[in-house]
Design goal:
Elements (H helix, E strand, L loop, with lengths): L1 H27 L35 E6 L4 E2 L2 E2 L11 E6 L3 E5 L5 E8 H7 L10 H7 L3
Antiparallel strand pairs: 1-4, 2-3, 4-5, 5-6
Length: about 140
Amino acid sequence: MFRRRARADREFREAQRAGQVLLALHTEWPLPDPPRPAAAPEAPAHPDFLPSDFRAPSRQDVEGFMMRWERPLVIDGDVHACPTCAEYRDWIVLCMRDDSVWLRCRAGHQVREPRLDAAWYNRNSGPADCFHPTLEDGLLHLGH
C-alpha cells in the first residue's frame, strides 16, 4: 500500500516538472503579431433607425415646453397668484431651453418663477403630445 502511494507521488512530481518545463519553453517563444483591425464597413447613409419624419425633436431643438395647470399653483406652501391681476388658477407653465420656468395667466401676463426649475416641470408634466412652430399656436392648442 505504501509503495503504491510513493509511486503515485513520484508520478505526480514528474508530471509537475514536465509542466514547468513546458511553461519555461512557453515564455521563450516569440510573441505573435497582434491581429490587424478589419476594415470598418461603410457607414450607412442614415445612421438612425427612424426616418427624420418620425423622430421627436430633442430638448435642444425646441425653444421650450408648455403645459396647462388648471388648479391653484402651490409653491413652498403658498398659493401663487399673478402679480398683475391676482389670478391664482388656470396657468400655462413654460419650461424654456435654459431650464427657467415661466408662468402665464389667463390674461396673458407672464412672469418668471425662480422657485421652480426644469426638474419640477419634468416631475409634473406628461409626455409632449405635439409640437408647435410658435408660442401662439401652442397657447391656442392649450385653450388660451
